[in-house]
Amino acid sequence: MSEAKGKSAVIKMYAAREEIYPREAKGRYATIRWACVWITQLVFYGLPWMNWNGRQAVLFDLEARKFHIFDLVLWPQDFIYLAALLIISAYLLFLVTAIAGRVWCGFACPQTVYTEIFLWIERRIEGARSARIRLDRQGWTVDKIVKKTSKHLAWGTVALWTGFTFVGYFAPIRSLMGAVLALSLGPWQWFWIGFYSLATYGNAGWLREQVCKYMCPYARFQSAMFDKDTLIVTYDRERGEPRGPQAGAKREGKGDCIDCSMCVQVCPTGIDIRKGLQYECIGCAACIDACNTVMDKIDLPRGLIRYSTDRALSQHWDARQIARRVARPRVLIYTALLAVIVVGFMFSLYSRTPLKLDVIRDRGSMGREVGDGMIENVYRLQIMNTAETAHRFTIQVAGIEGIALADGGVAELDAASTRAVPVRVQAARGAAHKGSNEIRFILTAEDDPSLRVTEKAVFIVPR
Questions:
Q1: Of 206, 232, 239, 384, which has fewest CB within 10 angstroms of its CB?
Q2: Using CA atoms, how far apart are residues 120 and 125, in angstroms rounded to an integer?
Q3: What's the CATH number where 443 sits?
Q4: Distance between CA atoms of residues 370 and 347, nearest Å
Q5: What pTM value is reported for the model?
């Protein structure tokens, strides 16, 4: 608020948002974008309903602390694999960005995917761009109320199904469906279905480009991964300027751009790519499709707006010359690091033994003497069978001459289960020195000797 000559004035710190009405783009990149929408959503919505070994194929069962991913069963101890996956995803994003800019944002990002779905619903109900603009500017009529209500109901349905599917990755989805129909969900299930549904509805229906421009951090630090050989959406200013709407003979002295603004009308973030690369550009290439369509209509070559690089544009390179610059130091470093991490991750998964053993001493009994001069220690073996099949295991102990289990020696575990097995270990007093002695527990599957694990422990001999 400021005052001048007795009058107050309001100074706005932020520009008011102007509603964007993206025109539907058709062309090669629009087809690719919709292919990404179909692929990602078929996977997202369909995967929880797929059965695998008599259970849900992909289930992050937080209550049971088990992550089922097809044949792979991960436990809390295996979170190192989650960290490795996040690192791989980060380096893959760096590599793709260094080569092709923000193609992830433009084609496969969930915000882009759901915005495309919600825009498709909006166009089917409210009409094309001009019809939507007229509808919003007119007063409230029965027709407007019906269209707006129908649109938001459709948006809400997609958002609710998305929220339900998301929770279905963390709770068995078939049981979850039954609980939804019976209105018997738990409070946390209601909360997360509602939260994710509201996030989808708000981000894709209302915020749209605001998420990309102000909420997503990727737009802010993308320039750190760009260089002059990064593929971006570019406007060929040398060919297009000066602009002019004239046609035919009147175009003498004019560039190829006829200033039709189609590239601006199809842009989901509302920018003018002819002003150069801007952080709001998500690389969706809708402007390329629109411009190519216009060029076809006026019999001019395509590519006024195209995927290119800063260096290629200034030096007039063709596609083959651009491709030669892909294998540059930055890309090679990202590729090498990514390859090392992926190979290490795959090797670790391949060599991973689906059997874990933790030995816990009974601290209430540090070592006691029993009959016949034998020393006995008591342990609890925490056995975890992470395989998808049940096994019968033989328990052995070694490390001291004559050491043996006083009871049992066999444990049966179901598939993907854990069990605590108490054992008593005995050794002759003279076979070990007083104090602590290192021993080993050996666990072996009777039906598969290669399934074997060894864990160290301490055997106490009283002084």
A1: 206
A2: 9
A3: 2.60.40.10
A4: 47
A5: 0.86
